[in-house]
Amino acid sequence: xxxxxxxxxxxxxxxxxxxxxxxxxxxxxxxxxxxxxxxxxxxxxxxxxxxxxxxxxxxxxxxxxxxxxxxxxxxxxxxxxxxxxxxxxxxxxxxxxxxxxxxxxxxxxxxxxxxxxxxxxxxxxxxxxxxxxxxxxxxxxx
Length: 142
What we know:
- The chain is an alpha+beta fold.
- Helices cover 44% and strands 16% of the residues.
- The chain has helices spanning 6-24, 59-70, 73-78, 89-98, 109-115, 132-140; strands at 31-35, 41-46, 80-85, 102-107.
- It has a 4-stranded mixed beta sheet with strand order 2-1-3-4, sandwiched between helices.
- A hairpin with a 5-residue loop joins β1 and β2.
- α2 packs parallel to α4 (89-98).
- The longest helix is centred in the N-terminal third of the chain and has 19 residues, at 6-24.
- It is globular.
């Protein structure tokens, strides 16, 4: 872990405050904000899984989508996401795809699990790869 600056700590405290607002609104206690290279807040989001009835309504995913739509690649690469908890796998992949340069989080996944144990997810059966000759056509454009 890198050393956090006073600016990092201030933005991380805001992420925690957003998490409190999400919890108070009846959603999961998660909040995030996106900050540009000059320390200006670009966007803020809270978890809205319950109020939106959308299991993907994580604040990190919403901000990654916002960044991909609204930031040039160099601006995205210079931006930092501050979030109350370490991003889940879904959000981490979206963050990587959006081109964001840095994520600073308060709680790790392990710490979250200790504070708020989650029931295990049911395993999903995957089958594949299959139909390579057919599946490659739309990818290759042939």
